[in-house]
Design a protein that fits this description.
It is built from four helices and 122 strands. By secondary structure, it is mostly beta strands. It has nine domains: 305 residues, Glycosyl hydrolase domain, family 43 (Tachylectin-2, Chain A, 5 Propeller); 202 residues, Jelly Rolls (Sandwich), CATH 2.60.120.200; 122 residues, Jelly Rolls (Sandwich), CATH 2.60.120; 137 residues, Sandwich (Jelly Rolls); 320 residues, Tachylectin-2, Chain A (5 Propeller); 138 residues, Galactose-binding domain-like (Jelly Rolls); 97 residues, Sandwich (Immunoglobulin-like), CATH 2.60.40.1220; 87 residues, Immunoglobulin-like, CATH 2.60.40.10; and more. The strands form 30 sheets. Strands 4, 27, 30, 32, 33, 34, 35, 36 and 41 form a nine-stranded antiparallel beta sheet that branches. Strands 28, 29, 31, 37, 38, 39, 40 and 42 form an eight-stranded antiparallel beta sheet that branches. Strands 85, 88, 89, 91, 94 and 96 form a six-stranded antiparallel beta sheet that branches. Keywords: Glycosidase, Hydrolase, Signal.
């Protein structure tokens, strides 16, 4: 039976039920409280719960057995009502009658139920058309209303019919137009609970602002008059508080009704989301302010309300859960029908499916959708629940008659005893932890045999993981599902038993998630469904609910073990392996790596298709990975990976190796599981070939063999001086219990590996695991100390210590506060006293914090311990000789470079490459203008902390694949040698590009320390750079920057429309040197300002960004139509800001629909680097998208950490290195948490060895060996005087090396390697494959040259033709005191093959026009090319048109032959190029490309010329050209002049009578179309001047026209010598719009009905008028 949450008879703990009871509404009849809740699509519909005290609730009935009989509600015909059904019921007791109302999204109707006896019925049912959202009943005297709505409040009156039912009484009235209070974005106010209290009508609602938490809103008014009619409705937020459950604060308790108790005290029943357990009710006290507003008091623990005198408390359950969750022996006579007694539900029970079958379940049960009562029974076999399959389905989601009860927290277990003797083939029966992402343990029957299996679905409801089937011969089996919500672990696990006592775990855990696809909490679900044949059945003897999980499970552990089952495929089957994707697996004895069997993999359609198996990995644990692979067809070599992936398709390569065709090859590697980002509950491993988006059947999708796959965790934990610190020996020795502590090694106590220790029997706080370290530790020595601890009962948090003591005294070495239910790591360093400590009696133990009067619950709880370590720190001399391993190990992608520092990264994507711009940590510009790589040091030469004050450079690297990074040099920005001489420093760059005046321009913004933002410009992403304005673009004088503490850290965005914005600023303000909580929580120190079109000026004033807890590091991205502003939080703000948990030193983000804001806080993206790599510090980032994947680039002290580990640095000194990891933008626009890793990102493209490769392109290298020796590692420097020009490897020394990743030599391969070098003492370069000690395929000799040697090329044939994809290592060796040599570039020469065609200027499917130069690019060297023939052909028949031996201007020699063609002389249509590249060795490479020539018709005016003045009749001539001409027409304005069908090319002439149009400017338009659908139109303007000028001597009569002063005038009567212009005279000024409508002029006469345009508005004359301006309402004109 579930345990009570009542802490004593008189108090209770919220939530009152740690289970899914959402949308509660409560009423009180003077004796009992009754409550309704949302159960959506579950049946029976709308549960009725009863309580005497508002805390202990029992289900006493339902409003109806089902809501309605529809396909959706019955899971029929492929339809369902998931996430719909009924929402948010309302309950009221009024005048001796109980009323329940509820709306249904599924039926689109609203239901009202009424009864005199709420527990016995009968119910009267009213069905009203229309769905009233989250409605509430409101009784107002004799009137009854429903109040409902979302975002607004509607009121609709009800009328009573003669039969007691209700109907609508008129339409709805909107009483509140906008029910939201204090929010503009988020969940609209909804969830109405309406009351008449005192003088007011109150409506209680919930709203959830995007930037806040759920909160309770109340609207009130003294009348029901709508706002629109003057109603005085007031809205107020009355409650906004997070409730803490399981040690974590939620997202706010809200949405619920209020009720007045028997003693007059008011209460509110609210709910809060508690994750997958569901939405749990919270009981709060309510008082009323003097001005009539409710005031809430929600406490974690509170007094239980008193019961009414007339109530019988014995009717309440003994605890707060068993009234809604109950064990059941399935005795049909034990429960009254309850809900089968509705007075008017005949339509519901008329069908056989719905008729009462005489079986009465306990009221705690609900069916998933309407049951089919023909196929379940409690009477067919008394004392058993019989479930018979009645339809065929494919999964539990579609299975009818699935019977459920709620799971509950913090832990709950549901078990069944099941008789499976009458199952049929294809039947599946068992128990589930049920929601969309479900898991279950079931008996499945196939081919007459039964087996036990656990299956787990993803968030889409698709099964993604299945356990190894366990054969079952017994007819009776016990199955169990355990739900663990402790500390929001949110894990479900499954077990089976043959005796109900000893249980075996099966399958992996389900990471339970609350999924809106179902919109309910997890339930225990008993099910039986058929996939093949109906009619089988199972009998369930009992269902037992308990709050104890893990009962009866074996707790032994065996130490390290292989996580992969049947890895050698020797079991006689492939199980539990399955084929990933389309892969087909089959055992074979024909070819194996060991044993007798391997597995063959065929049928692959994607590179990831291969053998797959689920594995139970643990975060932070390092695993050893191994697999043997062989393939026999395809390329000479191929990269294979062992990869781990989760249900979200997040994948990581665990191990990788290049396999040689025909040879068994072992893939091995070490892989550390990230602390976050990988859904461990759905993790699976598989073997694959290296990814490509367009796999080739031969080269990528070959069949292959696999054998001996293993994934093993840590074996003997390294506890330093502590033996068996990981307890992986399977025993406690040499640990003992301190005091009375009892120790037991169990699997359940393992934090990692398979074992840990449980500690029980404690009587003192010091009682815990103890181990002697006598004479193992040294006085005065420093030790790193760690231990993992967890406890599950007692206070919410507890301090634990790792303590050392001798025979007389004790010292705490490390301490931490542990949260109940969660593993926590105690860590720290401790120096043993040099004197006064007896190391001969030293012992170490784990304890709770000391108290002299320990409490059994709060201080002496049981706990578990694992991974206890005490490791001596090596002493570090002042200037040690370094021996650091590279920070970037082979196979990893982080840090991006480990031979040089770079901080505050900004990534710009341009032309297929990513450019990283970084603050030049560890460098400065010397007096001669040279960039020097060196630390800051003190007077004794010791490295000191980075002050950032000497930084005047920005480092740039670039890559096309994110692993091989080319050093682009250092930009000298600040100081006398920098581009911006006015600046003293250059920090935190941001770069972008924009097309200005048709040319691509690049812009680099930087911070001058904290004093302003500068900008540099260039025509290239790598420079050279110049300062276009000679001053800051943003400074303290920029409008809107008041309040910015630090004017630094720019970020730039160029929007889709070309407008640009600059984001900057940071710092925490203070008052008199002290920052208040408001100043740390809301510094308001960052800004955004619009940039001018030139990108080097600003427009308007800067706008404030109110970023919670901001410190620095603005970032900006646009994703879709949303702007994402990201930033680093400060280190002193509150843990919770505006209801959001905001960690310190973390990258957080906000969103807006406007680049200038306002922005709304959303969450965090990346924790502080210290949480991933140990060394913390500031956090600086940028996000970017590259090749359809989002990435985050950031800095960490990873290179410094490597030097510390190598012994040449005492600590990290703040010199930072740039890294990149993936980041995921979810479908809903949220950004998932990224994880900082050394592994980094996957390579996204291969490297071409046949192009020149800069030697400053490096994937991996030997790194910096010694922090104090500038020559102890790889160095890169400019080849010439420009620091940002071409870079070379310089000062190369013996033993150093560099490497390139993923170099694709292709099937033909390379035969030779060359390098451009400048020798000093000389030496050799060994070219190795796949490892620094891999096979040597070539050795370049570099003779001694001295300091003045010139650059030269050395070359050597390779020892074999290198094909396929390899990592290439260059190892350097030589003797002498000087450096060996410098290297500028590498290049591989193809094997003796035909010339390689590496590019063609036109691609398949392109369309070309005009004069075209087709260019072919060849690889290799020109001397190896004899000639290249380029031929143009037409149509499918490939009819020759011309070639580059005939066409003028074409070439056929060299590496870039051309064919020049004027396509306008050719007919439109399909064409192709045939290219034959002929080598000097006689071999030929042929390629073809097809494209379309499509030249539209060509038109040009011959006469008249544009702008000409014309009169009378005149020729209009147009020159017409083109192919397949279809039609030609000539127009003036919109009037046609001439038309020709299938005109001939040449001049088209038409004589135009210009007197047919009014004088003035007119447009001539010529249009031609062709048979391909092309259309060309040209226009020109001409001035028509046909009207004679006014002559004072001439006589004019009515209707004559003249031109005068640029206008046309019409004579109204006989006139002579009367100048036009007098508004009362004989002349009317005539003007029209382009469509001929009259334009109003003062002198023009208009009659009734005439239309005229004035100032863009059309008017109609009502009577005769002249010189009366339109617009006067009393005048003759009205708007037309």
């Amino acid at each position: 039976m579930p345990a009570a949450t009542a802490t004593s008879p008189s108090t209770f703990t919220n939530p009152v039920m740690f289970a899914d009871v959402p949308d509660p509404d409560v009423t009180f009849d003077g004796t009992y409280y009754y409550m309704v809740s949302t159960t959506m699509y579950y049946a029976p519909s709308v549960p009725i719960m009863r309580s005497t005290d508002l805390v202990h609730w029992s289900i006493v009935g339902y409003t109806a057995p089902i809501l309605a009989d529809t396909d959706e509600l019955a899971l029929r015909n492929g339809k369902n009502a998931y996430a719909k059904g009924t929402w948010a019921a309302s309950i009221r007791y009024h005048d001796g009658t109980y009323y329940v109302s509820v709306g249904s999204l599924t039926t689109g109707k609203t239901y009202i139920y009424s009864t005199k006896s709420i527990e016995k019925g009968p119910w009267t049912t009213s069905v009203l058309d229309g769905y009233a959202h989250d409605q509430s009943l409101l009784f107002d005297g004799d009137d009854v209303y429903l109040v409902y709505g979302g975002g607004a409040l509607d009121l609709r009156k009800l009328k009573r019919n003669g039969d007691g039912t209700f109907a609508w009484d008129g339409a709805a009235t909107r009483i509140v137009d906008d029910a939201n209070v204090g929010q503009t974005a988020g969940l609209n106010a909804e969830g109405s609970h309406a009351y008449t209290i005192g003088d007011y009508y109150y409506v209680f609602m919930i709203e959830w602002p995007t930037s806040g938490i759920r909160q309770e809103v109340v609207w009130r008014s003294k009348s029901l008059t709508p706002q629109s009619d003057g109603g005085a409705w007031e809205g107020k937020i009355v409650f906004s508080q997070k409730a803490t459950v399981e040690g974590q604060s939620g997202d706010g308790a809200a949405q619920g009704g209020v009720v007045q108790a028997a003693d007059g005290q008011w209460y509110a029943m609210l709910f809060q989301d508690e994750g997958p357990v569901g939405r749990s009710p919270q009981l709060a006290k309510v008082t009323w302010s003097d001005d009539g507003w409710p005031q809430y008091q929600l406490d974690a623990t509170s007094d239980v309300p008193a019961a009414a005198a007339s109530a019988d408390p014995s009717t309440d359950p003994a605890d707060t859960v068993s009234g809604i969750v109950s064990s059941d022996e399935f005795d049909s006579t034990a429960t009254k029908p309850g809900y089968w007694n509705s007075a008017n539900d005949a339509d519901l029970v008329a069908s056989a499916e719905n008729a009462n079958n005489g079986s009465n379940l306990k009221l705690q049960w609900q069916w998933n959708h309407n049951p089919d009562n023909r196929y379940w029974s409690l009477t067919d076999r008394p004392g058993y629940l019989r479930l018979t399959t009645g339809s065929l389905v494919t999964s539990i989601l579609d299975a009818r008659n699935t019977l459920t009860q709620r799971t509950y927290g913090p832990t709950s277990s549901g078990a069944i005893k099941l008789d499976v003797s009458h199952m049929k083939d294809g039947d599946v029966a068992g128990i589930s932890a049920y929601q969309q992402k479900y898991g279950y343990v079931a008996v499945e029957m196939k081919d007459g045999a039964k087996s036990l299996v656990m299956r787990r679905a993803d968030r889409d409801g698709k099964v993604v993981s299945s356990s190894t089937p366990v054969p079952l011969s017994a007819d009776t089996v016990y199955l169990r599902a355990d739900a663990d919500y402790t500390g929001f672990a949110n894990k479900a696990s499954f077990a089976w038993s043959l005796d109900g006592t000893s249980w075996s775990k099966i399958g992996d855990q389900v990471g339970m998630e609350y999924n809106l696809a179902q919109f309910v909490g997890y339930r225990f679900a008993i099910f039986d469904y058929a996939t093949t044949t109906t009619g089988g059945y199972v009998d369930v003897d009992w269902f037992h609910a308990s709050d104890e999980i893990g009962q009866g499970l074996a707790t032994t552990c065996t130490g390290s073990s292989d996580l992969v089952s049947n890895g050698g495929f020797e079991s006689g089957s492939v199980s539990p392996w399955t084929g990933n994707g389309a892969a087909k697996l089959a055992l074979t004895t024909d070819d194996k790596a060991s044993g007798t069997t391997s597995v063959s993999v065929t049928g692959r359609e994607k590179t990831g298709d291969g053998p797959r198996q689920d594995v139970a990995l643990e975060a932070g644990v390092t695993y050893q990975v191994s697999a043997k692979v062989k393939y026999t067809t395809g390329p000479a070599t191929k990269q294979f990976n062992v990869t781990v992936q989760d249900a979200n398709y997040k994948a990581y390569i665990m191990a990788s190796k290049t396999v040689t065709k025909g040879e068994w090859t072992t893939i091995t590697g070490s892989y550390t599981v990230p602390s976050s980002g990988l859904d461990l509950a759905s993790a699976h491993v598989f073997v694959e070939t290296v990814w490509t988006g367009s796999p080739d059947a031969t080269n990528d999708l070959m069949d292959f063999l696999v054998d001996d796959v293993s994934v093993t965790g840590p074996g003997a934990f390294d506890g330093g001086v502590l033996a068996n610190g990981g307890f992986e020996a399977g025993s406690v020795e040499p640990w003992t219990g301190n005091g009375t502590a009892q120790l037991a090694v169990t699997a359940a106590a393992a934090a990692s590996g398979s074992c840990g220790v449980d500690v029980t029997g404690r009587t003192k706080t010091g009682d815990g695991p103890l181990q002697s370290v006598a004479d193992k530790v040294t006085a005065g020595a420093t030790y790193d100390v760690a231990a993992k601890v967890r406890y599950t009962s007692g206070p919410a948090t507890k301090q634990f210590n790792v303590t050392i003591e001798d025979k007389s005294k004790a010292y705490i070495m490390a301490s931490t506060t542990v949260t109940k239910g969660k593993w926590a790591t105690i860590s720290g360093s401790y120096t043993i006293p040099a004197t006064g400590f007896d190391v001969g009696s030293a012992k170490v133990f784990v304890e709770t914090v000391w108290t002299g009067t320990p409490d059994a619950t709060d201080d002496l709880m049981d706990f578990s311990v694992d991974d206890v370590a005490m490791t001596a720190r090596a002493t570090t001399p002042t200037h040690p000789a370094g021996d650091a391993a590279p920070a970037k190990t082979v196979g990893n992608a982080n840090p991006l470079m480990d031979y040089q520092y770079g901080a505050d990264p900004w990534a710009m994507v341009y032309d297929g490459r990513v450019y990283e711009y970084m603050t030049g940590d560890g460098s400065y510009i010397d007096a001669d203008g040279n960039v020097v790589q060196a630390y800051e040091t003190d007077g004794d030469g010791n490295v000191k902390d980075n002050s950032y004050g000497k930084i005047q450079t920005i480092n740039v690297i670039s890559s096309s694949d994110l692993v091989n990074w080319r050093n682009e040099g250092a930009i000298k920005v600040a100081g006398s040698h920098g581009a911006a001489t006015w600046a003293s420093n250059s920090w935190a760059p941001a770069a972008t590009h924009k097309t200005i005046d048709g040319k691509e321009k690049f812009f680099l913004y930087f911070a001058n320390s904290g004093g302003g933002i500068g900008v540099l410009t260039s025509d290239s992403p790598t420079g050279p750079w110049k300062d276009p304005i000679g001053k800051p673009i943003v400074s303290s004088s920029t409008p809107g920057t008041s309040g910015v503490v630090w004017m630094f850290d720019p970020a730039v965005l160029v929007d889709d429309d070309g407008s640009a914005y600059l984001y900057f600023g940071g710092g925490v303000p203070s008052t008199n040197g002290t920052s208040s909580a408001d100043q740390t929580d809301h510094p308001k120190s960052t800004r955004v300002i619009k940039l001018g079109d030139d990108m080097v000026s600003t427009v308007g004033s800067a706008e404030t960004i109110d970023a919670p807890g901001v410190f620095e590091d603005s970032g900006i991205n646009k994703i879709g139509d949303t702007y994402y502003y990201s930033y680093c939080t400060n280190f002193s703000h509150s843990a919770t800001i505006d209801g959001h948990e905001v960690p310190t030193g973390t990258i957080a983000y906000m969103t807006s629909k406007n680049p200038m804001g306002p922005f709304t806080y959303q969450g965090t993206i990346l924790a502080n680097p210290g949480s991933f790599f140990g060394a913390g510090g500031n956090n600086h980032h940028a996000m970017f998208e590259f090749k359809d994947q989002w990435y985050i680039t950031y800095h960490a002290q990873t290179v410094q950490t490597a030097l510390v580990k190598g012994g040449s640095l005492d600590k990290e000194h703040g010199y930072r290195s740039t890294q990149i990891d993936t980041v995921t933008v979810a479908d809903d626009g949220s950004i998932e948490h990224a994880t900082g890793t050394y592994r980094g990102v996957d390579q996204v493209g291969s490297l071409d060895p046949f192009q020149e490769i800069s030697a400053a392109t490096i994937a991996w290298d030997s790194g910096i060996q010694d922090a104090y020796d500038a020559d102890s590692g790889i160095r890169v420097a400019p080849k010439g005087s420009d620091s940002s020009g071409d870079q070379v490897l310089t000062n190369v020394d013996d033993g150093e090396w560099t490497a390139l990743s993923g170099v694709d030599f292709g099937d033909d391969g390379a035969a030779r390697v060359s390098a451009d070098v400048r020798s000093r003492s000389g030496g050799t370069v060994q070219v190795r494959l796949d490892a620094v000690d891999g096979d040597v395929v070539g050795t370049l000799d570099v003779p001694a040259g001295g300091d003045d040697a010139d650059w030269t090329t050395v070359s050597v044939p390779l020892t074999k033709t290198v094909t396929g994809t390899h990592d290439v290592f260059f190892t350097f060796a030589g003797e002498g005191d000087d450096h060996l040599f410098d290297v500028a570039s590498w290049r591989f020469v193809p094997a003796a093959t035909a010339p390689q065609i590496t590019g063609i200027s036109v691609a398949d499917g392109d369309t070309v026009s005009g004069k075209v130069t087709f260019t072919v690019d060849l690889g290799g060297e020109a001397k190896d090319v004899k000639y290249t023939y380029v031929e143009l052909n037409k149509g499918s028949g490939q009819t020759w048109v011309t070639d580059n031996t005939k066409a003028a201007g074409s070439t056929n020699a060299g590496l870039h032959p051309t064919l020049v063609v004027d396509t306008t002389a050719l007919a439109n249509g399909a064409y192709g190029l045939k290219i034959d590249a002929v080598g000097t060795n006689g071999k030929t490479t042929e390629k073809k490309v097809s494209f379309t020539i499509n030249n539209p018709p060509r038109l040009s005016f011959v006469t008249p010329k544009d702008g000409a003045t014309v009169s009378g009749k005149m020729p209009v001539t147009v020159d017409l050209g083109g192919q397949g001409l279809k039609a030609y027409n000539l127009r003036v304005d919109s009037a046609g002049l001439s038309y020709a069908y299938e005109p001939k090319a040449g001049e088209q002439t038409f004589t135009w009578d210009s007197t047919t149009v009014a004088d003035g400017v007119h447009t001539l338009l010529a249009t031609a179309t062709d048979t391909a659908g092309n259309k060309t139109t040209i226009t020109e303007k001409v001035m028509v001047a046909n009207t004679p000028a006014w002559d004072a001597k001439a006589v004019y009569t009515t209707g004559d026209r003249v031109s005068f002063d640029g206008s046309t005038w019409l004579a109204s009567w006989w006139t002579q010598n009367q100048k036009p212009g007098d508004v009362t005279g004989p002349w009317q000024e005539i003007a029209t719009t382009s469509d001929g409508t009259a334009v109003w002029t003062a002198s023009r006469i208009f009659s009734s009905g005439d239309v005229a345009v004035y100032q863009g508005v059309t008017y109609r004359a009502q009577w005769w008028t002249r010189n009366q301006k339109p617009g006067d309402p009393n005048g003759p004109w009205e708007k037309a």
